[in-house]
Amino acid sequence: METSQVFGQLRVDQYVVGPLDNNLYVLSTQDTSQAMLIDATGDDLDLLTRLVDRGVTRALITHGHDDHIGGVAHLRQLGVQVLVGEPDAALLDGYDIALVDNEVIRLGETSLQVLATPGHTPGSICLGALGQRVLFTGDTLFPGGPGATKFPGGDFPAVIRSLRRLFAMFDDDTVVLPGHGAPTTVGAESGSLDDWIARGW
Predict the structure, then answer these.
(1) What's the rounded Cα separation, in Å, for the pair 37 and 51?
(2) Of 64, 66, 71, 128, whose CB count within 10 A is highest?
(3) How confident is the model at residue 2 (pLDDT cuts 50, 70, 90)?
(4) Looking at residues 98-119, what average pLDDT do you find?
(5) Which residues does residue 15 pair with via DSSP β-bridges, in sequence order?
(6) pLDDT tens by residue, 118-161
(7) What is the dihedral of CA 159, 85, 179, 167, to 10 degrees?
(8) Residues 29-57, mean pLDDT to the nearest whole number
(9) What mean pLDDT is predicted for residues 85-108?
(10) Can you tell me the distance from the alpha carbon of 23 to that of 2, in angstroms, rounded to the nearest whole number?
(11) Looking at residue 197, what is its pLDDT?
């Protein structure tokens, strides 16, 4: 399934892939022929190949869990540059750039800010499109709460700190595009933070 949204100069094509309904996002702008993929499940390698044929040259991995990195080796074989948060880099078979907090990635004239948001994994990152009111959260934030922290490397207090940071940085009408599930907004989620803390997950 493919859906598309436009945020200012940024076009976002969304694909839902695999048994866990992973969201893959292809980011493109009119001022460059290159596109960037967010996350790389290995459940549909033919899709990844088609995306490369359509201009994907970089893949940003939001975190190092298997369902988000299974296509990394395939993409690198096709010449795609793989970017990942530095603490999760060792979880990948290979990568090209280890990203750090507040790093800015350019896609044409659009600036994308890397935000270190540990908690779901130590190296989880989110990506904010500066000036475009859209935030890609991987498994850090879903509609209804943070991603699970019961896995090795998970840290619930850390993910709460990460969410506090995101909610302070982004306006309520910022669209949140998560790693699984439906879109939401910062405003729809931020008021529930205390409830999430109380329930402990």
Answers:
(1) 8
(2) 71
(3) confident
(4) 97
(5) 2, 24
(6) 999 999 999 999 999 999 999 999 999 999 999 999 999 999 99
(7) 40
(8) 97
(9) 97
(10) 10
(11) 97
pLDDT, residue 1, reads 61
Q: Are 6 and 31 in contact (CB under 8 A)?
A: no
Is residue 186 within 8 Å of 172, Cβ to Cβ? yes
- The b/e string for 7-39 (b: 16+ C-beta within 10 A; e otherwise) is bebbebbbbebeeeebbbbbbbbeeeeebbbbb
- Report the distance separating Cα 200 and Cα 133, nearest Å: 29
Helix (H) or strand (E) holding 13: strand 10-17
Is the pTM above the cut of 0.85? yes
Q: What's at 97, amino acid-wise?
A: I
User: Where do the structural domains in the chain lie, given as residue ranges?
Assistant: 2-199
Amino acid at 181: G
SS3 6: strand
The answer to whether the Cα torsion of 135, 121, 117, 30 is positive or negative is negative
Beta strand pairing call for 81-85 and 134-138: unpaired
Local structure of 81: helix, strand or coil: strand
Type of residue found at 27: L
* Inter-residue contact 61 to 37 (CB < 8 Å): no
The pLDDT mean for the chain works out to: 97
Q: Is it true that domain 2-199 has CATH number 3.60.15.10?
A: yes
Q: How many CB atoms lie within 10 A of CB 59?
A: 28
